[in-house]
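Section: protein folds

Sequence with per-residue tokens
===
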Amino acid sequence: LKIAGDSVAFDLELTTPACPVKEEFKKECEKYLKELHWVKKVEVNITAQHKTAGPLGGKNRSIGCPGLSKVKRVIAVSSAKGGVGKSTVSVNLAYSIAKLGGKVGIFDADIFGPSLP
């Protein structure tokens, strides 16, 4: 936080760089700060946490699967039931993240086995 005369500047750290409402947050910060009678200029610098994929269950997830060595995040969509929209949710998540600038991939695996013998 930096205050100099009638100017206020600060960093607003988000939990993800792909936050869909980051511009709205910035506008709200500017709006509310400018409601203070002495504030004429507001500078909001948006930053985001960049967490890399860490240990998974005490082991590096790329051990035995080198294809995952550059993967930063994994989102699993599961229900143990068919026909509930898992594929639709997966595609919509991937599409939305891609539109926000993320790199995405989808891996579809039936890990619960067939629902019928």
User: Anything to note?
Assistant: The chain has two helices and three strands. The longest helix spans residues 86-99.
